[in-house]
Write a structure and sequence with these properties.
Elements (H helix, E strand, L loop, with lengths): L7 E6 L5 H6 L14 E2 L2 E2 L6 H14 L1 H5 L4 H11 L3 E5 L2 H5 L7 H19 L6 E3 L1 E2 L5 H13 L4 E4 L15 H10 L2 E4 L18 H22 L2 H4 L4 E4 L6 H20 L7 H8 E5 L6 H8 L4 E3 L12 H6 L7 H16 L3
Parallel strand pairs: 1-4, 4-5, 6-7, 7-8, 8-9, 9-10, 10-11
Antiparallel strand pairs: 2-3
Helix pairs in contact: 7-8, 9-11
Length: about 350
């Protein structure tokens, strides 16, 4: 709690220690465990990261979270950081796990093994204090036939949310018919779907085909992959067929959303006939009905966003402990009370994420 606000962190992360893969991968897949320098059988798990960026990233994390670094970002470190920030509940997403599931050439069998290993490890991580450490299960898009099985395992853990990459995997968009059973099961079970990309992944990623700097690739990857994922879910009819499915767009800011919804509504007004089988209402209406987006407190147009889409679809995530995370970011979020109504703040910091994640 901070300044009388209870706070749900809708997007925090673990920094998985490298040894977990040796400990949690099934015996048949032990040879695929990444090395300490993030290579699998000599091949990098990431794309286009310079040595300078790696060094600077490590330095920033060590400067911001020295004690957590010392303790390998274990469960106790996470809880301690939450208390320091004033966060009451954290929903936890992968870090290196995102890269591991974002290698387009990886076989479905290996991707499935990494998924199970990560989820089993995260279950133990959250068992330190399951009331406030909430696991978001990883799902591999490489093996569609295994997605529902892993979803059921995650539900047995007591978790109510899963993480998906917004990027195409094996050439398939999120609207590919092969995922239909998975979407149906997510809706049936009331599972929240958090879309979260990984810059520098080895999937098709906006900007990575034409830029080389972290500055450019990171700027493009997060918002633009989310924009196209939202489009795929609308244009492909996923949100039409599953009106109770909840989808969250994380770590991309929210500034792109008003423009994108306006643009899609304009296209719909002009070419409704082309997509009428899958798109029955305006794209902006689908978003308002069943989608959520995480804001950055420093975005200067939040009042305009709320004016446009309302205050019921907005979340806050700290991105702890990544380099994007600022130690004072929760204080920055709470400081929005100076320009936003108290009722709106209550929604952003607690009510909306509680509804999205199905928190009792």
């Amino acid at each position: 709690m901070l300044k009388k606000y209870q706070i749900i962190d809708a997007d925090s992360h673990v920094l998985e220690p490298n040894h977990i893969w040796k400990n949690y991968l099934e015996p048949a897949f032990q040879s695929f465990a990444p090395s300490p320098n993030f290579r699998i059988k000599g091949e990098k798990i990431y794309h286009k990261i310079s040595d300078e960026i790696k060094i600077e990233g490590v330095k920033q994390i060590m400067d911001s979270h020295p004690l957590s670094v010392l303790n390998e970002f274990d469960s106790e470190s996470h809880v301690r950081a939450m208390k320091q920030m004033g966060v009451d509940v954290s929903f936890i997403y992968p870090t290196y796990g995102l890269w591991l599931l974002a290698i387009d050439t990886m076989t479905p069998q290996v991707a499935g093994a990494f998924t199970r290993a990560y989820n089993n490890w995260l279950l133990n991580f959250c068992s330190y204090n399951p009331q406030i450490l909430k696991g978001v299960g990883a799902i591999s898009l490489h093996a569609p036939e295994e997605m529902v099985l892993e979803l059921h395992r995650i539900v047995e853990f007591g978790w109510k949310a899963i993480c998906l990459l917004p990027n195409p995997v094996k050439g398939r968009l999120l609207s590919d018919p092969i995922y239909e059973d998975f979407w149906a099961e997510c809706e049936k079970l009331g599972i929240a779907v958090g879309l979260h990309t990984a810059a520098h992944s080895r999937l098709p990623t906006t900007g990575a085909d034409r830029f080389n700097s972290h500055f450019a690739i990171h700027a493009c990857a997060h918002p633009m992959e989310q924009m196209m994922a939202l489009l795929a879910l609308i244009e492909g009819g996923v949100l039409e067929r599953y009106p109770k499915l909840k989808v969250g767009f994380l770590e991309s800011g929210c500034g792109w959303l008003p423009y994108w919804l306006w643009r899609l509504d304009e296209e719909y007004n002009n070419t409704q006939w082309e997509v009428k089988e899958n798109v029955k209402i305006k794209p902006s209406e689908y978003f308002r009905r069943q989608c959520f987006i995480a804001i950055e407190p420093s975005e200067p147009y939040l009042d305009k966003l709320i004016e446009y889409i309302g205050s019921d679809n907005i979340l806050f995530g700290s991105d702890y402990p990544h380099t994007d995370h600022r130690p004072k970011i929760v204080e920055e979020a709470v400081a929005l009370q100076e320009c936003l109504p108290k009722k709106t703040m209550q929604k952003i910091l607690w009510d909306n994420p509680a509804r999205f994640y199905g928190l009792d």
